[in-house]
Amino acid sequence: MKLKKLSVCLALAGILPVHAEEITTLPAVDVTAERVQSLPETLELHQHDILKLRRQTNDTAKLLEGQPGVSLYGAGGVSSMPALHGMADDRVRVKVDGMDLISSCANHMNPPLSYIAPTEVGVVQVMAGLTPVSMGGDSIAGTIKVDGSKPEFAQAGEATLLKGQAGVFYRSNNQAQGGDISATIASENVSMRYSGSTVRAKNYKAGAVFKPGASIVGSLSNAYVAGDEVGSTAYQAENHKFAIAVRHEEQLLELKLGLQRIPYQGFPNQRMDMNGNDSQQINLSYSNVYAWGALEARAYNEHTRHSMQFLNDKTYWYGALLNVPGMPMNTDGKNTGFSVKADMPLNDRDLLRVGAEIQRYRLNDWWNPSANSPMMTPNTFWNINNGQRDRGDIYAEWEASWSPAWMSLLGVRSGTVKSDAGVVQGYSPMMYGVAANAFNAQNHQRSDNNVDVTASSRYTPDANKSFEAGYAMKTRSPNLYERYTWANSNTMVMNMNNWYGDGNGYVGNPNLVPEIAHTLSATASLHDEGKKAWEVKVTPYYTRVNNYIDAVACPTCPARVDGFLNLTLANQSARLYGADMSGNKTLFETRSYGEFTLKSVLNYTKGKNLTTGDNLYNIMPLNAKLSLEQRLGGWTNTVGVTLVDRKSNVQAVRKELPTGGYSLVDLISSYEWKQIRLDMGVENLFNRYYALPLGGAYLGQGATMGTGVVYGKVVPGMGRSINMAVSVKF
Prior knowledge:
Blueprint: H1 3-11, E1 43-44, H2 47-53, E2 70-73, E3 81-84, E4 87-88, E5 92-96, E6 99-100, E7 121-128, E8 142-148, E9 161-171, E10 176-186, E11 190-201, E12 214-215, E13 224-225, E14 235-248, E15 251-265, E16 273-289, E17 294-309, E18 317-318, E19 324-325, E20 329-345, E21 350-367, E22 381-401, E23 406-420, H3 429-440, E24 446-462, E25 465-476, H4 480-484, H5 491-495, E26 505-506, E27 515-527, E28 534-553, E29 566-590, E30 594-609, E31 623-632, E32 635-644, E33 662-672, E34 676-683, E35 721-729
Parallel strand pairs: 5-8, 26-29
Antiparallel strand pairs: 1-7, 2-3, 3-4, 5-6, 7-8, 9-10, 9-35, 10-11, 11-14, 12-13, 14-15, 15-16, 16-17, 17-20, 18-19, 20-21, 21-22, 22-23, 23-24, 24-25, 25-27, 27-28, 28-29, 29-30, 30-31, 31-32, 32-33, 33-34, 34-35
């Protein structure tokens, strides 16, 4: 497949001239939220696109799939991790309703976007590379901002606003089924809203048989996993949110209470599964407009209790007599944050934005002993004991409109990250005493003084084009697992610390220092005067990362014979570069057939470890997406084509596996009456088999704690699925 030539043509399709029939009907209107930032360029999903996608998935990260600069690391059914320009996980600042959430899990099974259901999402913004300092620090790839529905109030003179919505859905491939409901009651000054959702899904099936079918000896239910079944992909989740908002003139005070319960979630690229994730969130925000400017303040607290074990498709009973009940792992994370931001117009040209943030994070990660296992007794294993990570930042940002054609942005953020961890122990002094004593003898306190700088400008010579360029220096301190996981003497324990999905075992490095990324980026945007008929954007970028945290060989760790590796981490140097291209074009519009719009996206990223000459891990190959959308009355119909090149630039140190190229066709259709909306879709129309380039190693079944997992398989994508959803407004 000559994907490179074809995808460039697709990305440029939006600028081809097409003569449309002149009609007098009004065009469709997309309602979008006000931009948070004039500079740099921000990708914001339209409400139309959010409505179209959010009942096609229960994984909020997948709302971003196919967007410029975005790719997704595979994980559980509600826990994919977005990557921006080849960097993912903690390198991306993810804000959910203004909260900086942290994954509390040795395998990062609960990333920030897993804490908000797609049906609750109201606004999605993505800032890759050139991120304003006001939109988050302690990250080097960019910021993703996802907010829930905004509070609604009764109109002046209206006694009470009462509205709601309920929906159900079904997806055939994994028999996913569930529903959601929301209700609002409000006066002119007080608004109360509840929203809730639930989902349950079985394992999904690939487009073809990719392994032999097998019975899982020692599993909880004597499971049989078919040859086309992707093991450990079942899940169940529910989310609840209650919000109350009070306004007076320009003041708005809002309290949100969130509750998440995930009884189970399988992970096909991890040796463990999630058998419990309970989270409670308290989020209080205040905003007001004064004569001098605008003020925003927020305080939040999030508490996660997380546990891992083996679900049905993985061996649960170990030992010669099959009497050892798996390997229970428990995590308790507490995240508290405060932030304040002020926007102060100094004059008609200059806007000053200042702010401060404080975050306090506490983590305990322990594994209970098992009486029937000589390797897992007699003590509790402390993976991280009293882990602490405290961050305090201040920033200032100056935005200037020099003329109708020129704008500029300059921002500086100064932050301090302090981390620490307490005394650890293994199951027994005999097996783990040497490693534990060596770790305990070290000073664990670390203090990082980090600086971020963003400078960008935009030139808009006329109503049909704009050009933007800038530089950003961004800094990220290591997370607690990167610094403080300590057990390097046992492969089984090292397997439990893996937030990469590659099947290898890891041990941390207390001497890691912060990553510092220097990014240069530019954007050219060409469009018609109203950005309604056509638009094309091209964004090349280059990033150099000093002290990049990457995997290295571990000379003090046990050797392995199962094809996987035991690794540690070190600071090295890295380079990433590439380009995003996107285009859209209204092809034609008639009374009989409606409006036809062609949209296209092309993403290219290349990553290299400059210290070793190796490729960087999990870099998405060249990919493109083309969609043709028709709107006619209440109908919206979309045909989408996804093209992905083969992945041959893999990382040797992790024994990353290559994947083949593929193409997929999806159909999505919806019809909306005044109070009812019907969504239908066919995902992977031709039931193509393909390996997920960022899916990781397949560990979805069998004795994942031993040597029974066969090295050499990548997690495959989902085969054909017919999806249906109905929602009713009341």
